Amino acid sequence: MSLYCYVVAVLLSYLIGSLSFGAIIAKLKKVDIFSMGSCTSGATNVNRALGKHAGYLVFVLDFFKGVIPTWIIVKFVSPENPSNTKLAMLGLLGVILGHSFSIFHRLRGGKGIASAMGGLLIIMPKALLMGVFIWLVIFHATKIVSMASLCFSSSIILTSYLFLYPKENTTFALILNLLIFWRHRENIAKMICGTEYKFTKKS
Hints:
- The structure is a single chain.
- This protein is 71% helix and 0% strand.
- The protein is mainly α.
- The chain has one domain (3-193).
- The chain has helices at residues 3-17, 21-28, 43-50, 52-77, 86-100, 113-123, 125-142, 145-162, 167-183, 185-193.
């Protein structure tokens, strides 16, 4: 696989990731999502600002934003070696970087959890399933999305090792985890101070 293929795959994935469905849906409702709540365009903030139906829709769209480029890379870009997912992992990182730092929205965006889940469905499905289970357990225990998301991303490192994925998958999981923790740095500070937002039954 040439360097050219890697560069093109990452750049195209970044552009796809930069499509901010949260910002688009909010704009259709005449709302600037970047001035609401956490000032991000992810599903959680859309849920808080526009309601659960809009939030669920954004989550699904962002999820498939991770699925589609990763699946295309695995199935069509390198069909001669489907076990080699290095290019797909780089593509997924491109999607998440685009989602988090959208070129169309002054390098603003979401925090990448939904898109990461979508790509992991293609790259590491077993690790994803365990991670989603952990996310659900932590969320139901704390009602804090950011706490559940951080536990999810951390679990991928361990499960990629336990499920005997190749070493590059574990390295990818570590890089993904560091990126997600960086995007959640303000949430971490709020959790330490006890001021992080909690979802209630009313929400």
